[in-house]
Design brief:
There is one protein chain. The chain has about 500 residues and is α+β, with helices and mostly antiparallel strands. It is built from 4 helices and 31 strands. A hairpin with a 4-residue loop joins strand 6 and strand 7. The longest helix is centred in the N-terminal third of the chain and has 68 residues. The protein is elongated, with a radius of gyration of 44 Å. About 5% of the residues have low confidence.
């Protein structure tokens, strides 16, 4: 039996070196020659040609290594293998447990971070809302914040036009001619409330606990002209509610906005379905209509024209057009027949904070954060007049109202006073101070132009037009966010906190 001079094991392919006469395993000696080029025993130069293959006869399987040639040796080898396997499994278990602990720690850390971020977002939103409330109470226009992430808002960048389409202008002119001709001869309707009766108004009814308790507060109010028992409210809770006073129940609670509701209104037109319309701080307006099949109000359209908070919402006297004002320094007009935008103004120098439409439908009044009121011709989009108080610190014009005869415009002329502008002379003919503690939230003429109301932090004050006499104070409930004159002026509706209060003639 031969043994390899390198490995000491019986070779499977034995070769002999002619230089050293030693036997080698072929693969081992070839590898050595390639690396060193010499005989491993004598050190002489050695090449592959110097190797002679030895043919074993008879050919037989190589013997087992000595360590595996007995049962005790085999058992010892198996024991060593088992021990190595057990040790490896133990190491894998330790590594597995360590990995699980690291994963658990990472998951807990991620969960904790998510909770912290959610809490911070809630605190941020609460702080923004508190700041907006403070700014509103101080008469400062809120600055537009750039959203941290893109929202799903369809901006109509190409909506700025050079005036309304001809068909819409013709519709407005037709309405203007009909309304202005009738208005010149119009007097207060028979049975309409008189100034003497307004002085006797007392609290008649209160509907409490409207909208959510957190965030609480009604921000806007509208009363149906066709069904006077029904009214629409918008709240800080991002919900629009339709309520029936006669049945004392909520008819519909309409959701979809992501921020507080700024304005609500009805579109009521003979021969057309009644529409419920809202404008929100989330830059969108939503329109709902009654579905005759289900008996429920369903969404008809969502308007996403503006890039800033919607601060004005008025249905045009044609009843087929809808107008918006926004903090993005533009206003827009939409067709309620097709729910499409027909006009959007070019950017103004200042944001728009309030909106009113002239009773004849040809003019728009837009308030700004710098005390100025811009009067636009709705047909051309051109500025027809600019009204600015002669003195005083700048303030936000947060509410506007045209008189029914179209000659006067009611607006704040400071945080605590209101002015009556004569549009023919383009100057304020009267200013009424309400006291330093009074902060104006809403101004409104009644439909007869005999009275006007001012809602604010201390309730509401009702004045007679022309004589400027204060007729009554409606201070139950404290801060009043919105004010509406009821049918024939027989009632006055106000939104205070989560309540809608109604004042009228004593029983």
């Amino acid at each position: 039996m031969f043994f390899c001079a390198i490995s000491g094991e019986p070779p499977q392919e034995p070769v002999v070196s002619i230089k050293s006469k030693k036997v080698y395993e072929r693969r081992l000696i070839l590898k050595y020659i390639n690396e060193n080029g010499t005989d491993p025993v004598t050190g002489e130069k050695l090449e592959e040609a110097d190797l002679i293959t030895i043919e074993a006869s008879p050919q037989a399987a190589p013997p087992r290594p000595p360590t595996h040639s007995s049962i005790p040796a085999l058992l010892h080898t198996l024991q060593n293998e088992w021990d190595a396997l057990v040790l490896e499994m133990y190491a894998l278990r330790q590594q597995h447990n360590s990995t699980r602990q690291e994963l658990s720690y990472a998951l807990y850390s991620q969960d904790a971070a998510t909770r912290v971020v959610a809490r911070l977002l809630r605190e941020r939103d609460a702080a923004r809302e508190a700041l907006a409330n403070v700014q509103a109470s101080m008469g400062i226009a809120p600055s537009e914040a750039v959203p941290a992430s893109a929202e799903d808002v369809e901006m109509n960048e190409g909506g700025v036009e050079e005036g309304l389409p001809a068909e819409i202008v013709a519709r407005i002119d037709e309405t203007h001619q009909a309304l202005s001709a009738a208005r010149k001869k119009r007097k207060a309707p028979a049975g309409y409330t008189t100034a003497a009766e307004v002085k006797t108004f007392t609290a008649k009814h209160a509907i409490p606990s409207l909208h959510s308790a957190s965030p609480s507060g009604i921000t806007s109010l509208a009363v149906s002209r066709i069904t006077p028992s029904q009214f629409l409210t918008g709240g800080n809770d991002k919900i629009v509610q339709l309520y029936d006073r006669d049945n004392d129940k909520v008819i519909a609670s309409l959701k979809g906005h992501t921020k507080k509701i700024n304005h609500v209104t009805f579109r009521e037109q003979e021969g057309s379905p009644t529409l419920l319309i809202s404008a929100s701080a989330d830059k969108t307006s939503k329109i709902w209509s009654l579905d005759s099949a289900s008996g429920e109000y369903i969404p008809k359209s969502t308007i996403r024209t503006h890039k800033g908070e919607l601060t004005g919402l008025v249905v045009h006297p044609t009843s087929t057009l809808l107008t918006f004002a926004s903090l993005d320094k533009t206003y827009s007009v939409h067709d309620l027949n097709t729910f499409t935008q027909v006009f959007r103004s070019g950017p103004s120098d200042e944001a728009f904070t309030s909106l009113s439409v002239h009773p004849d439908g040809t003019l728009l009044a837009l308030g700004t954060p710098t005390s100025t009121i811009q009067i636009y011709d709705i047909r051309t989009g051109a500025i027809a007049a600019s009204l600015t108080p002669s003195e005083g610190a700048p303030f936000t014009v947060n509410s506007l109202s045209f008189s029914e005869n179209g000659y006067h415009l009611l607006s704040p002329d400071s945080q605590s006073s209101v002015a009556i502008w004569d549009l023919r002379k383009q100057k304020a003919t009267q200013s009424i101070s309400l006291g330093d503690d009074f902060k104006v939230n809403k101004v409104l003429y009644d439909t007869s132009a005999q009275f006007f109301g001012v809602a604010g932090s201390l309730g509401a004050r009702i004045f007679a037009h022309k004589s400027w006499e204060e007729l009554t104070r409606l201070d139950e409930g404290g801060n009043m966010s919105d004010l509406v004159f009821g049918e024939q002026g027989k009632e006055i509706w106000g939104a205070t906190g989560r309540e809608v209060r109604i004042w009228g003639l004593p029983a």
